Amino acid sequence: MDRTADDDDRESLVGGLISASEAFEGSEGIAAARALARSFLTKVQAVHGLPVSDRVMGMVQLVVSELVTNARKYAPGPCLLTLQVQGGAVEVTVWDSSTALPSILAPDPSRVGQHGLEIVMAVCQGFQVYREPVGKRITAAIVLADDPGGDVAGRQL
């Protein structure tokens, strides 16, 4: 994990875009990535006045954990986590050095393990994978506000 900057330097507000980024290396980075997500969303709510429900806090941490875990498991070297608020959603982006695109397996209740991306797809409003000149970038969007009508992450219950 790269911690050369203090916490306040990891968050920025540029042109109305609220974001935070950090590079992680090693398995201890997974817990630190969840902590960054928690801290970021706490600041989004306290400093910027945007609503962040407990459900959203948990979903973002879950998505961060799954995407950073996959990056650490399947790609050599560090990964970069970027969180940003845009269009009423939190975009969780993870870059890693592997050019192999993720496989999203069909739901299978008898399969043990490898359900991470299946879970991410179920809780996110959007999911995109981009090839980069070096590696790939995966972005998942989670709606910030809960809909009182029962809409969770953009999907009707």
Question: Which short descriptors sum up this protein?
Answer:
4 helices; alpha+beta; 157 residues; six-stranded antiparallel sheet
Q: How many helical stretches? A: 4
**Sheet bearing the most strands, described?**
6 strands, antiparallel
Which sequence of strands runs across the widest sheet? 1-2-3-4-6-5
Let me know the average pLDDT: 82
Helix content range: 25-40%
* Shape field: globular
Strand content: 25-35%
Describe this structure in words.
- This protein has 157 residues and is α+β, with helices and mostly antiparallel strands.
- The chain is 34% helix and 29% strand.
- A six-stranded antiparallel sheet has the order 1-2-3-4-6-5. The protein has a two-stranded antiparallel sheet with strand order 7-8.
- Helix 2 packs antiparallel against helix 3 (54-74).
- The longest helix has 21 residues, at 28-48.
- It is globular, with a radius of gyration of 15 Å.
Layout of helices and strands:
Blueprint: H1 7-10, E1 11-14, E2 17-24, H2 28-48, H3 54-74, E3 79-86, E4 89-96, H4 116-123, E5 126-131, E6 136-143, E7 151-152, E8 155-156
Antiparallel strand pairs: 1-2, 2-3, 3-4, 4-6, 5-6, 7-8
Helix pairs in contact: 2-3, 3-4
